[in-house]
Amino acid sequence: MSALALEHEEAMRMIRIEKLGNTWGDTFSLKDISLDVEEGEYFVILGPTGAGKTLLLELIAGIYYPERGHIMIDGEDKTSRPPERRNIGFMYQDYSLFPHMDAKGNIEYGMRVRGIDPEERGRRLEELVGLLDISSLLHRDVTTLSGGEQQKVAMARALACYPKVLLLDEPFSALDERTKSRLIHEMKALHHHERLTVVHVTHSQEEALQLADRIAIMMDGRIVQVGTPSEIFSRPSSMDIADFVKVENIWKARVNECTHDTLTLDLYGYEVRMARPEQFDCTEREVRLLIRPEDIVVGSGARTSARNRFHGVITAVEQRGFYHVVRIDCGFPVVTVVTKNSVEELRLEVGASVDIFFKTTALHVVSV
Fold first, then answer.
1. Domain end position, chosen among 199, 221, 240
2. Domain limits at 291?
3. What CA–CA distance (Å, rounded) separates 133 from 105?
4. Which of 222, 269, 295, 355 has its CA 20 to 30 A from that of 77?
5. Beta strand extents in 233-347 (DSSP E only)
6. Any idea what DSSP says for residue 141?
7. Mean pLDDT, 10 residues at a time, over the chain (368 residues)?
8. Which candidate, 258, 286, 290, 292, places its Cα nearest to that of 367?
9. What whole-number distance in Å separates Cα of residue 168 and Cα of residue 92?
10. Are 73 and 199 within 8 A, CB to CB?
């Protein structure tokens, strides 16, 4: 890469974390974490409870200082700088509003501490009030606000001092589904309007899919995969990640032939073809074949361009929210999802014979 290209890449990077590590007593440690977050990116750290997501966020914020590694923000080493010297906004899961102040006092607090003049404070307050639609909340006791209202006030407080980076710790976890859906939509608009770099920690795959430009999967104190939502959910790099992101079709397979662009596999006695992954090692023989339920088409002699077609018998039909899960025995277990209309139109019921189809590009292979 040329010097000019490297300089451009560095300019686009808002956060760089290099070999970050820290230990908390005898119980938990973060292990050699390295991450890059681009300017203006909505970056989600996704993982199960206890993975270390919030601890990583607190290291970025300066709540803790790492024992090893470096944290760069906007091209400057902030590893040993206090939180107020990092130009970040931080919103905790419980919002941590000051109960002795009204909503207006909470929002203005950071600006007062930093000595921002009253005229600028008023202008910024007015801007945030309009952006978040919270004019009716300004003089309310924050302990009387609903969860969604508290979240908006906490967001305004985090944004008040024009942070370069906004850190969000499980921001929607305490909200009901209707409020959560509305605020996720508003968060998208806010991110665009403020041109923010956001690092958002969550265990919710739904939040990650709706908001993230890229996702880092975190497990047991390590970052185990980074990619776009499509890469993470359709191309998990390990069996643990596949299990976490709910890839329900995981089949044992054997590689029979490997060419420069195609893999031919034996799947329980059936031949399956798929595109060869770029980094796949042709010496591999025993593998796991993965495909998401949404990528399998159910029909009866349906016209499709899919190259892989199998016949099976339905063993279960389960309603799951607004869609149905159909389980099929094709000589190997298959899980697919269909709409209510498809269940009725195709007469999908236990004992019915059906064909399934999937494209080679929908398959993913993981080494054992």
1. 240
2. 247-367
3. 17
4. 222
5. 249-258, 262-267, 270-275, 286-291, 297-299, 308-320, 323-329, 333-339
6. B
7. 50 91 87 96 96 95 95 96 94 90 95 94 95 94 94 94 94 88 91 92 96 98 97 94 95 94 91 86 91 90 68 96 94 95 93 92 89
8. 286
9. 6
10. no
